[in-house]
Amino acid sequence: MWPSEAGKALAAACEMGEPEALGRFRRFHEARVIDPCGRQGVGPTAAFVWAPETVAATAVLFAIFDRARIGDAPRLRKLHDYLMRPQPEGGRLIELILSDIASGGAPVMWLTVWRGPEDGEQTTFSTRLSAELDAPIVSPGHEWEPLFYGKLDLRPLLQNFAGANVVPLRAVN
Fold first, then answer.
1. pLDDT tens digits for range 85-136
2. 96: which of 20, 85, 107, 131 lies 20 to 30 Å off by Cα?
3. Where are the domains of the chain?
4. Could you tell me which of 140, 82, 150, 78 has the C-alpha nearest to residue 115?
5. pTM of the full predicted structure?
6. How far apart (Å, rounded) are the C-alpha atoms in residues 171 and 173?
7. Separation of alpha carbons 158 and 165, rounded Å
8. Positive or negative CA dihedral for 108, 62, 146, 143?
9. Distance linking the first and last C-alpha atoms of the chain
10. Which residue from 99, 86, 78, 64 is spatially nearest to 34, judged by alpha carbons?
11. Strands in the chain per DSSP E
12. Going along 78-168, which residue ranges are E strands?
């Protein structure tokens, strides 16, 4: 996906103007929050190319940035890595989320800020696909208590990306 295509997709998903979406996308890249999948061309006309899954994960980062006011690059990079991490079921988490949405599901992401022993704080992200929406959110330790819960519905945010990597299988006679 070219940067201009990524900007259009992010603008539509995150309800912002294309220039704002593309500008933030470039800033996230410059801050090393997101990585391109390659580079096309040579010299001054060369451009980065982005995987659709990376752009979908960036839409989640934009939502966390806007709604939870998490703006520091290390925490956003940690969330990006979480979404791009391979899963035991196969594929990366963002691909499983998109597949769940494509099959009619409504996955959610919970952001939790915990207070721990001696006033330490830790932020966790927990994703629940449609089949596991009732699963409890587990604390980082038995002495940690939640200070804040935030829920992000992923379907409205990512439904435009859901068909990008899911190819339905059809029986052939």
1. 998 888 899 999 999 999 999 999 998 888 887 767 888 888 899 888 888 8
2. 20
3. 3-158
4. 140
5. 0.83
6. 7
7. 12
8. positive
9. 35
10. 78
11. 38-40, 47-49, 108-115, 121-128, 145-153
12. 108-115, 121-128, 145-153
